Amino acid sequence: MPQLELVLPAVVFAPFAAAALALWVGKFAGQRTGVLMVLAAAGSFLGCLQLAAAGTPVGFVREWIPSLTVSLSLRADPFGLFFALLISGIGTLVGIYALGYMPALAPRRLGQFYAALLAFMGAMLGVALSDDLILLFVFWEATSVTSFILIGFWYEQEEGRKGAWTALQVTALGGMVMLAGFILVGLTCGTYSLQQLTQSRELQARLAESSAFVPALLLILAGALTKSAQWPFHFWLPRAMVAPTPVSTYLHAATMVKAGIFLLGRMLPLFGAAWLWTPVLLPIGLATFLLGAYQALTATDLKAILARSTVSTLGLFTAIYGMATPEQDALGIFAHATYKGALFLIAGIVEHATHTRDIRQLGGLRHRMPVTFTLAVIAAASMAGFYPLLGFHAKEAYYESLLHAPLLAGSGLQAAVIVLSVVANALIFAAAVRFVAGIFLGKPSEHVGHAHEASPVLWGPPAILAGLALVMGLLAPTTEHLANAFSSHLGASIHVAFVPAPGWPLALSAITTGLGILFFWARAGLDALRGWRPAWLSTEYLWDAAMAGVVAGATAFSSRWQSGSLRWYLSGTLMFTVGLSGLALWHGGLSLRDVVVHFEEMQWYGVALCAMLTASAVMVVRSRTRIGAALALTANGFLTAALFVVYRSPDILLTQILIESVSTIFILLVLYFMPPFRIDGFSPMRKAFHVALSLAVGVCIFTFIMFSTSPAFRETHNLAADYLTRSLADAGGANAVNVIIVDFRAIDTNAEITVLMVVGLLVYGLLRSRRRSP
Amino acid sequence: MTGDTPILRTVARFAVPLTAGVSVIIFLQGHNLPGGGFIAGVMAAGAGAMYLLAFGVAKAARIRWWKVSVVGLLISVLTGTGALLAGRSYMDHEIWHFHLPIVGEYELPTATFFDLGVYLIVLGTLMTIFVEMAQEEGR
């Protein structure tokens, strides 16, 4: 079906077009630009539904960079489509919510906000639906960049800038590392197509045998783990909570942080058999699972609680892929997206109503905000894993897979993983209970005094999400069917039963609940555990220190090399010139001894000119005043011009005279600003260095010129004759010098004149700004 | 140093247009005879400097010289891009032949447009620096 094939790029690129439109429309429409977001997201959602209804995966391939086997290739397989539905569906809800949430700001700024949100959605859909690894990378980095803009929305605040900056550092760097991994895979296998890579046994075998296998695996994992905020890169996510709440919901609960998880799901068929896969992913996943859950229970900021628990759940997914038990992934990811999205939106509603996000200052809101309270109870119950909500089924499926994972079965490791998982889940349970209890139960605090229920625009979107968590939990057979159909594992067969069968998973759930209640009561004691660790022993601190080190190093390097001393710059340039030409001479086995000088050919005027040139050069050096040196230099230049008269080179003669005139004017203009001429102040060492450098430059340039004009050189490397013969024939110009400049070497000239223009602009800008400032 | 000098002013009244005119001739003949965009631009800047010295910075600064250099770069780059659009490589020049009524057969290489860009950039940049420096001094 050709129309269906075109739906795929429309789904991905329409949000980008809408983003461009939003930038423009936003100038007039302001807050109402959000309607565009809702429409674009809903449109993409419908497009995805149409693709899902097709039954078979739809593909769209166009040539992009054929020479590198990179193509613009999209593919709607079930797992990608599942993600795309999640992205566009929650995008619609977040768009509606933002209409009620975003404060009245300058219209232009709101337009920019929605444009960034739309572009982010497009990039995210691109990640989900790309079939080409390079294309996936491009979209991947686009999500990093757009999320940087979104997190830094409150850029007036130090925290906002810092949070955005950290997120960009970690995720964009991770993405670039991942690109290196992709390229290794592409070079080894000769294709970047995910479909081919994951389905062809032959390509997988070729990759597994190559030496690039382990580096590629580790590089790609680095990209996935940074994006999904896994330990030790988890710190960027809580910092990113400075973003407006719709952004936090969309990026940091429902979509972007799951991109890393999504990539793991994509890579599992390719790398899952590697011996490194489980030892890397399982410990990192479980550590993040546990650490995040603990921090979620002890955090005090509402969004921090949710962010930490998100980190924790992402750790759970990493562990699931690490154990190569991907059958449950769609169920787990969907369950998390619904309850966590709802809770984030509810946190935003509470902040809107009470102007605080500190859970210690909240309480007793249940009477004032009954609807929000009900929704929070449903969503938190799903998070805690209460029967019969979707979260319960996800947890059951997880315990089920722990008991039967082929990688673990029967080993001591299995028991350890089960114990850690139960503890972490119990902590999450306690955090969910605390979230509801802390905000809505107990006595009203003074902060909730004037709080009132939010408008339907605000509670509608979380109501839909919480409703999904409830309804999907109740409709067990439908949930089972969808979870299996959309899993990254083809032919998944997990069981979701309305009435849970008695057995170990149910027992583990019961233990989790009991332990969770215990943790909730003992949370003050758990909080005290935090003090054991010194501040410097956190990856967050180490990362900041490393980044500060990079900046300090760059500053030190720049201030050393870019010292502002013109003598230092000139010495550096000359040293480089001498070094390069010296190397060339040495490489060619040439030295001064090979220069042929015919003294019998020299005429009296040649000798006289050379004597005057030498005399003027000595005068430049011996002059006690700057103007004296300048005049001697000018004399030297005009004498050089006279030399060209002798050698009948009118073009260069003209150039030389003009350049000399203009540079004399120039020197006279700048003379006024120069610091005192203190040539005697130099140390003997420095003088010796200057003399040595000058001598080296003189000898090198002299040798070079003598070689290039020697008959022996002309016979062997006759570039000049080539240019001279081709000048008129190929370029229609008799002046070979000019033809070289404007035709043969036009691209060089192009670069040179660009530099020249930039220099002019810099002088203009620098002097103007200096004059304007007092 | 931009003092009121009647002698310089009298000379400049003739010398500036003369130098500027010669620079145009040198530019036009550049493809076949000594000349070309670069030195013609330098010569025009020399004329500009003479004008600046004789009549003062304020008059010389009436033209935004940096804009001249930007226009120059645009002309150069667009000349090269023209070949690109015609399906050949960047900066691939060709020669246009015209049949003009009086001059007769006339050759115009597209490289001349590129050279015009060079001319304007050299003139614009040098004049920017001269004018800014001279204004700095007048402070």
Provide a quick synopsis of the model.
The complex is a heterodimer of chains A (774) and B (139). Chain A contains 32 helices and two strands. In chain A, strand 1 (58-65) and strand 2 (70-76) form a beta hairpin.
Spell out the key features of this protein.
heterodimer; A: 774 residues; 32 helices; 2 strands; B: 139 residues; two-stranded antiparallel sheet
How is this fold's topology laid out?
The complex is a heterodimer of chains A (774) and B (139).
Chain A: H1 2-29, H2 34-53, E1 58-65, E2 70-76, H3 78-101, H4 107-129, H5 133-151, H6 158-189, H7 194-199, H8 201-209, H9 213-227, H10 236-239, H11 245-254, H12 256-271, H13 277-298, H14 302-322, H15 329-354, H16 370-384, H17 390-404, H18 412-440, H19 456-474, H20 476-486, H21 504-521, H22 523-528, H23 539-561, H24 566-587, H25 604-622, H26 626-646, H27 650-671, H28 684-709, H29 711-716, H30 719-731, H31 736-744, H32 746-772
Antiparallel strand pairs in A: 1-2
Chain B: H1 6-29, H2 37-55, H3 57-60, H4 65-85, E1 95-100, E2 104-109, H5 111-137
Antiparallel strand pairs in B: 1-2
Plain-language structure description:
- The complex is a heterodimer of chains A (774) and B (139).
- Chain A is mainly α.
- Chain A is built from 32 helices and two strands.
- A two-stranded antiparallel sheet of chain A has the order 1-2.
- Chain B is mostly helical and 139 residues long.
- Chain B has one domain (6-137).
- Helix content of chain B is 68%, strand content 9%.
- A two-stranded antiparallel ribbon of chain B has the order 1-2.
- In chain B, β1 (95-100) and β2 form a beta hairpin.
- In chain B, α1 runs antiparallel to α2, α2 packs parallel to α5 (111-137) and α4 runs antiparallel to α5 (111-137).
- The longest helix of chain B is centred in the C-terminal third of the chain and has 27 residues, at 111-137.
- The chains are: A mainly alpha (774), B mainly alpha (139).
Q: What is the subunit organization of this protein?
A: heterodimer
Strand content of chain B: 5-15%
Let me know the largest β-sheet of chain B. 2 strands, antiparallel
Distance between the termini of chain B: 12 Å
Please tell me what the overall shape of chain B is: flat
Mean pLDDT of chain B: 83
Question: Main sheet of chain A?
Answer: 2 strands, antiparallel
What structural class do you assign from the helix and strand content of chain A? mainly alpha
The neighbouring-strand order within the major sheet of chain B is 1-2
- The DSSP helix count of chain A reads 32
User: How many strand units of chain B?
Assistant: 2
